[in-house]
Write a structure and sequence with these properties.
Blueprint lengths: L1 E4 H12 L8 E6 L1 E2 L2 E3 L2 E3 L4 E3 L2 E3 L2 H6 L2 H6 L2 E8 L9 H5 L9 E5 L13 E6 L2 E4 L2 H7 E4 L19 H19 L5
Parallel strand pairs: 1-4, 1-12, 8-9
Antiparallel strand pairs: 2-5, 2-8, 3-4, 6-7, 9-10, 10-11
């Protein structure tokens, strides 16, 4: 199971959209994994060779795009790449040049170069099994890859004092305290 926040998914889509031209795009989703559950914290965009219908991540670019994994004690959880049209299956090249050939590796193919902000259920999610890559069906997608809302706001309009925004320093302090508690609980998950 892999969890990703809605804001991280949207960030990944925005970064892929910044690529010029009608070429395939590629990114990696990285984060910690505990007890078989992965938590995407980082979107990694390699310095890939992008072309219409294909992309290539050279060994040097792959090395550069993986240096942070050991430093932050995280791992590569999935690969994302795009296709031009609606076809989101793996081509033979997609299967042979995926970031990993280890069973359990995930490869996500976004339609129309991700321009229409597809959700995972509108994409092709493929899992590497012992004998090759297989596209997950809809029920398997929902049980394998979950986008979690970044903000849930249940406040009534009457409870809001004003339209003021929180300052960065206030936000940083609150976020630091919240993340410290999250990671403390996270590290206690079974491995």
């Amino acid at each position: 199971m892999i969890y990703i926040s809605e804001s991280t998914w949207q960030t990944m889509l925005k970064e892929l959209a910044r690529t010029k031209g009608n070429v395939e795009r590629v990114a990696f989703l990285d984060g910690p994994r505990r007890g078989g559950i992965g938590f995407v914290t980082t979107v990694t965009l390699p310095d890939a060779i992008l072309a219409p219908g294909s992309y290539d991540v050279t060994p040097a670019a792959m090395s550069q795009a993986g240096k942070h994994l050991r430093r932050f004690q995280i791992e590569r959880l999935a690969q994302i790449h795009t296709h031009d049209g609606d076809w989101v299956n793996h081509s033979g090249k997609d299967s042979s040049q995926a970031y990993s050939q280890m069973p359990g590796a995930l490869s996500i193919v976004l339609p129309r170069h991700g321009r229409e902000a597809p959700m995972p259920s509108e994409s092709g999610i493929h899992i590497r099994e012992e004998h090759g890559w297989r596209r997950l069906d809809t029920d398997e997608v929902d049980a394998t890859f979950l986008i979690i809302p970044s903000v849930l706001d249940f406040r009534s309009p009457e409870s809001l004092a004003s339209e003021e925004t929180i300052t960065w320093s206030e936000y940083r302090a609150a976020t630091k305290a919240m993340l410290a508690g999250f990671f403390h609980r996270f590290l206690k998950l079974p491995r």
